[in-house]
């Protein structure tokens, strides 16, 4: 081909490529990606159905249903109960609903991982919690929170065992006295406990109504009291934890002298108020006051009912496990 023909062909091909480039622009990938990017972690709404259960199991169910990760110190969630959550929420909304009645708070890191920790308190020299380990790139794997939480935590166990000095101040002219007492409790929930209390027998002397010169004629008996109560604790997570209790007192009388036909067992209501002061992970100091109806009858005459109705004061130590 002649040299002039080769040059003309090359020039024609170049012009064709330039026209094709001008008429067919490159797609705006960056703009499309920015307009339709994925929502921030925790913003997508999810259908949740989590029944009321222990907090550790509820957090595990939340992580599975939200398909995200959560990091939590096992200590603060031990023996906490989470409410039921059912409906369509964002993961953040559902998590806050689970923690609404606890002293825990939730935050979210830049990588989308949720972190649960206790609310800050005014404790001197308290070290901040360590930041969560960055999650590896790729699809998020739900955290198996339930497997990380131990089944028993000594500092927040469900059992209480108490040892006390007990002083009873009887009604009227009956004599009171001091003895020892022991109690055992089991926490049904974080706030409600069932308790059993037993006192060491003590001797009481009392007047017998309906007899001549009742003030001079005194009888005596040894009394042993036991009580079954239900208690409500107002601040189980605080150092000072006041409570109120009510139940049934059963008092046994034996070694009776000076009166015939005295009831050997009498039962009546009991009311109690007290407070626990936490000393360390296991031990607490307890002070309480209670009133019980103890009215044994002497014979068949109602006028000879003996009203002891002791007002009792207890002070001692409680061990939680």
CATH topology of the largest domain: Porin
**CATH class type of the largest domain:** Mainly Beta
Q: How does CATH name the architecture of the largest domain?
A: Beta Barrel
Instruction: Please state the overall shape, judged from the principal axes of the Cα atoms.
Output: elongated
Largest sheet: 8 strands, antiparallel, barrel
* Class from helix and strand fractions: alpha+beta
The quaternary structure here is single chain
Radius of gyration: 37 Å
* Strand order in the largest sheet: 8-9-10-12-13-14-15-16
Distance between the termini: 102 Å
* Integer tally of domains: 2
Helix fraction?
10-25%
What string, H for helix and E for strand, traces the elements in order? Answer: HHEEHEHEEHEEHEEEEEEEEE
Counting H and I runs of at least 4 residues, what is the number of helices? 6
Q: Report the uncertain regions.
A: 10-39, 143-155
Number of strands: 16
Strand percentage: 35-45%
What is the mean predicted local confidence, pLDDT? 77
Layout: helices, strands, pairs:
Layout (H helix, E strand, L loop, with lengths): L2 H21 L5 H7 L10 E5 L2 E2 H12 L3 E3 L1 H4 L3 E2 L2 E5 L1 H8 L5 E5 L5 E5 L26 H4 L10 E11 L7 E11 L4 E8 L2 E6 L10 E16 L6 E18 L7 E14 L4 E10 L18 E10 L1
Parallel strand pairs: 3-7
Antiparallel strand pairs: 1-5, 2-4, 6-7, 8-9, 8-16, 9-10, 10-12, 11-12, 12-13, 13-14, 14-15, 15-16
């Amino acid at each position: 081909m002649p040299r002039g023909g080769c040059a003309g062909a090359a020039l024609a091909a170049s012009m064709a490529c330039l026209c094709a480039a001008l008429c067919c622009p490159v797609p705006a990938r960056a703009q499309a990606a920015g307009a339709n990017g994925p929502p921030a972690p925790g913003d997508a709404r999810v259908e949740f159905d989590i029944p009321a259960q222990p907090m550790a199991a509820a957090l595990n169910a939340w992580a599975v249903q939200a398909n995200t990760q959560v990091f939590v110190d096992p200590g603060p969630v031990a023996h906490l109960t989470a409410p039921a959550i059912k409906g369509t929420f964002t993961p953040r909304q559902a998590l806050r609903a689970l923690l609404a009645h606890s002293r825990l708070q939730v935050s979210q890191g830049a990588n989308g991982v949720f972190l649960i920790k206790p609310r800050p308190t005014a404790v001197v020299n308290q070290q901040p919690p360590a930041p969560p380990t960055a999650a590896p790139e790729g699809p998020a794997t739900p955290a198996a929170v339930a497997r990380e939480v131990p089944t028993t935590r000594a500092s927040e166990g469900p059992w209480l065992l108490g040892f006390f000095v007990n002083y009873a101040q009887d009604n009227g002219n009956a004599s009171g006295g001091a003895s020892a007492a022991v109690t055992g409790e089991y926490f049904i929930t974080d706030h409600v406990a069932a308790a059993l209390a037993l006192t060491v027998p003590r001797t009481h002397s009392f007047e017998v109504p309906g007899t001549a010169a009742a003030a001079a004629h005194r009888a005596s008996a040894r009394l042993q009291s036991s009580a079954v109560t239900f208690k409500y604790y107002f601040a189980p997570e605080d150092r000072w934890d006041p409570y109120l209790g009510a139940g049934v007192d059963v008092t046994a009388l034996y070694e009776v002298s000076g009166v015939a036909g005295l009831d050997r067992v009498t039962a009546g209501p009991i009311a109690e108020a007290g407070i626990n002061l936490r000393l360390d992970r296991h031990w607490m100091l307890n002070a309480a006051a209670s009133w019980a109806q103890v009215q044994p009858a002497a014979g068949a005459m109602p006028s000879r009912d003996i009203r002891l109705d002791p007002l009792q004061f207890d002070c001692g130590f409680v061990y939680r496990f």
